[in-house]
Amino acid sequence: MIAATRVSVGWILSGCVLLGGCVGSRLTPEDHALIDRVAGEGAALRSAQDASAPSAPIAAAAGAPDEGRVADAGAPLALADLVAIALRRNPEVRVAEAKLAAAKARIGMAGALDDPKVGVEFDEVPISISDPTEGDRKGSVMQDVPFPGKLGLRADVAESAARVAEQELGAKRRDVVAMTKRAFFELYGVERSLAIQKEQIALLEQFVAIAQSKYQNGRVTQQDVLKAQVELAQLQNEVLMLEQERSTTRVELNRALSRPERATLGSAPEKLDPDPAQPLEELRRRALAERPELRGALAEVERSLRARELAEKDRLLPDFTLEARYMSRRMEEDRWMGALSLNVPWFNSKHGYEVKEANAMAAAARSEFLAARNLTLADVESAFVRVETSRRLAELFRSSILPQAEQALAAAQKGYETDRVDFLSLIDSQRALRGIKLAYQRTLADFGRQTADLERAVGGDLAK
User: Fold this and answer.
1) 3-state SS assignment for residue 50
2) Please, which residues have CB within 8 angstroms of residue 62's CB and are 6 or more apart in sequence?
3) Which of 59, 89, 421, 457 is surrounded by the most beta carbons within 10 Å?
4) pLDDT tens digit string along 120-174?
């Protein structure tokens, strides 16, 4: 048994080890400070989140939503069921899940060695049939081995890329949740407006009856009856327009649920109670910790820094090829041979360009993260202002404007019945009440849609 090497590489290995220690981690103090600062802004909140159950809409997707109740035309729609159905059926969510699975599979691929190579050599071809042992025969096995640390870095890069894909999935889920909630509150606004118009039709029919009774008794002219009938016809026309709008809104909600556009849907609830949002500072803190786009941007920063570190190692540190050979010779004793070879990256300008590219990509990732952070904070503040404005306006309608309008109409109706108020004043009071009721319901619907936008900006549900 004789051991041999193709080249003497002891001094090369020593130099490579020294270079490896010099390259080590290529993260600059600024890189570490950026990652530590961002991670620290929401670390405590994220830990509490991970230890608890997922937020309601996301968790509902794992359960079995009541699709039968959603399709029951006589049943009120439950927002949690709608969100769960949308998350379970949405094809874009399925695409993002498949991409995440693929990214996770690449982690193992990146940290694995390349396939070994097996070779056989014959000195004389074709081989003699009469004496197959004639001539030398050689067999070899070769394995490419990256410099120590490179495989781990490649796996780190792939793992960071998987975290980016995971946050892209989270962002897509939040998009679906927000889209479903906006469609739900749009349907609520239309259906409540339709109910108000029908309620006002019934009230006007009472006014028509009162006017006809007074006309028959000679207390008013026929003009009052005609005014009431014209007003009633206008309301009936508005009901037709709202019914058409309701059909369109139901199509949009079914589309958000990935259901057939004309599939049967239940009805929106009859009442919404707007709750105050969390303090703005708390929402900012949550957004920095939870918003998927921001967490994905941070994961991309980490990926780009690891990729830069890997590019530096590729520029300075060689990779190895280990080879074992077996030689069978006709006139000599069989023997084994070993060989070690390595590439020489120091004179190849390609690696310098790879490092430049990695530096540029790392700088771009840092800038994208800071831009995403600024956009997140701006989105949260803008959505918060809209939500609070709608909430205060709804409270003003409920506690002050609406009761006063109802009192004004009741007084006008009583005055008309006793001939102290003319019919035009009665109709004006009825119109004012109808407009206020419609504005109140539109404000509640706006509050729901704007809350969905605020949740999207924060990256999580507000009801926690």
Assistant:
1) helix
2) 54
3) 457
4) 887 766 655 555 556 677 889 999 999 999 999 999 999 999 999 999 999 999 9
Q: Which of 157, 189, 166 minimizes the C-alpha distance to 253?
A: 189
CB 137 within 8 A of CB 121: yes
Q: For tokens 């039709």, what's the residue?
A: 201
Let me know how long the chain is.
464
Residue 274 to residue 291: CA distance in whole angstroms: 24
- φ/ψ of residue 420, rounded to 5: -95, -15
Which residue type does 46 have? Answer: R
| Region of residue 14 (phi > 0: left; psi between -120 and 50: alpha; otherwise: beta) | alpha
DSSP character at residue 332: S
| DSSP H or E run through 19 | helix 10-23
Type of residue found at 344: V
* 194's tokens: 């339709």
Biggest CA pair distance of the chain:
138
Query: In the predicted model, is pLDDT for residue 220 greater than 70?
Result: yes
Q: How far apart are CA 332 and CA 316, in angstroms?
A: 43
Phi-psi region of 251 (alpha: psi -120 to 50; beta: other; left: phi over 0): alpha
CA proximity to 362, closest of 310, 287, 288: 310
Neighbours of 287 (CB within 10 A): 24
Distance, in Å, from the CA atom of 150 to the CA atom of 306, rounded to the nearest integer, reads 10
**How many CA atoms within 13 Å lie on the side-chain side of 433?**
24
* Domains along the chain with CATH numbers: 27-107+166-316+363-458 (1.20.1600.10)
Confidence of residue 334 (pLDDT cuts 50, 70, 90): confident
